[in-house]
Amino acid sequence: MSHQSAPGIRDIPSVQATEFRQAMRNLAGGVAIVATGTAAERRGLTVSSVTSICMEPPCLLVGINAGSETHDGILASRSFGVSLLSTDQEDLALRFGGQGGAKGIHRFDTAPWKQGALDVPLLRNAFCALECVLYDHKVIGTHSIFIGRVIATRVGHGNPLINFRGALRTLLLD
Predict the structure, then answer these.
(1) pLDDT, tens digit (0-9, with 9 covering 90-100), for 102-135
(2) This prediction's pTM
(3) Are 137 and 147 in contact (CB under 8 A)?
(4) Per-residue pLDDT averaged across 86-104, rounded?
(5) Residue 3 and residue 14 in contact, taking contact as beta carbons nearer than 8 Å
(6) Rounded to whole angstroms, what are the CA distances from 28 to 108, 113, 167, 169?
(7) CB–CB of 130/153 below 8 Å?
């Protein structure tokens, strides 16, 4: 069954990007590093667009800029790791977000990583880590949606790091 818009619905103009960005700043989201590759081919970046999709099969969705090295690395390896960050890992969120100028493999220099069952990089002391095989991929504008089928998880400790209103913040757990 095809899902198509009603006639003329595509002619309705979208809001401006700045207005959309301002609105989305009000949606709190967990902060994660999505990584792929091995050895000198490891690539990763900070994202706050991670969400679960379904339980059967267990899948999550990540949105990644189509121009990033990590994007191409996921397409090449067909697998990726998601390391959800805790509040004491703000420096890593900034590093993998491009602050400080570290690129490629050098982003991994300041923290302990391990290669998971799928041979994807996972942060050893992540708040939570998930390993995914690429289930589907779709380009939407400047970004791609990657759907990963989760094959392994590991839960850590601490308080999660969140992105809210353009700042990294702490969510204190009971």
Answers:
(1) 999 999 999 999 999 999 999 999 999 999 999 9
(2) 0.90
(3) yes
(4) 95
(5) no
(6) 26, 27, 10, 9
(7) yes
Residues 6+ apart with CB under 8 A from 69: 43, 103, 104
Give which of 150, 168, 158 is closest to 126, Cα–Cα.
Answer: 158
Q: How far apart are CA 63 and CA 167, in angstroms?
A: 19
**Omega before 57 within 30 of 0, i.e. cis:** yes
Q: Which amino acid is at 140?
A: I
Burial of 126 (0-12, 13-18, 19+ CB in 10 A): buried
Q: What's the rounded Cα separation, in Å, for the pair 38 and 48? A: 23
CA-to-CA dists, residue 30 to 4, 81, 94, angstroms: 32, 15, 14
Helices (H), 25-145: 69-77, 90-96
Who contacts 128 (Cβ-Cβ below 8 Å, separation ≥6)?
83, 84, 153, 154, 155, 156
